[in-house]
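During the no-cost extension, the postdoctoral fellow (Dr. R.K.) reprocessed legacy sequence entries with the updated structure-token encoder. One reprocessed record is reproduced below for audit purposes.
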Amino acid sequence: MDIIMSIDIKSTNEIIKIRKSCKIASEVLTMIENYIEPGISTEKLNKICHEYIVKKKHAFPASLGYCGFPKSVCISINDVVCHGIPNKKIILKDGDILNIDVAVIKDEYYGDTSKMFFVKDVKKEAIDLCKSTQKSLYLAIKKIHPGMRLRKIGSIIQKYIESKNYSIVREYCGHGIGKCFHEEPQILHYDAYDKEIKLKPGMIFTIEPMVNIGSKNVYTGKDGWTVKTKDKSLSAQYEHTILITNYGCEVMTLREEELLLKQ
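Re-encoded structure tokens follow.
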């Protein structure tokens, strides 16, 4: 099937349901912030997120059991790029940076988002990496409009990130989302051929740049999930779920503290 034909345009009813799932996912990230401190294990953070999603929001953590993933959220620390598995032996320490990636299912529809957290006193180079990664996402979002070529998203991110002398991970990308966790189209975070896809109202997808302070090269650990930088350099990621509207886009996973995107 032609990839353009396989991109799902969501109905009004579907958008309402996805918006609910996205709101829950964003609320998990806001909630868990208060628990980020030295001495807590990533397994404990996972448990807190799981109970919040299931018991308070009456939803389901989409990562749990997905292709065999054993936990409810992904937690990736320092040189872990993505898909970090929470573990009671992994303890946060002063100076760590970590990404928590939350995806939920509510009424059969998905929402997906992630952000970086700082553990107490974090070095300036780590803070700068995270801020630049988040800004690259914001820059792309602010330019989105119907009729725009898909590749422009990656082009904007790449231009900014490389101007900061960071590198973009190429092996992982954003994705369409709706009644399935991962749908077409794939959203690359660098300038690449996009099969001439143009953005249309009703498209919903994630943008989730993964940026390394050193080389772009990564590898997957023995557990089959944990992705790390080959040179052990720090990595950062931010993710939002985006709806293309008639005039621009809606950030469906927007958190209250993100005033920049509301301007």
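Residues 12-32 form the longest helix (21 residues). Residues 22 and 253 are 5 Å apart (CA to CA). The remaining legacy entries will be reprocessed before the final report is submitted.
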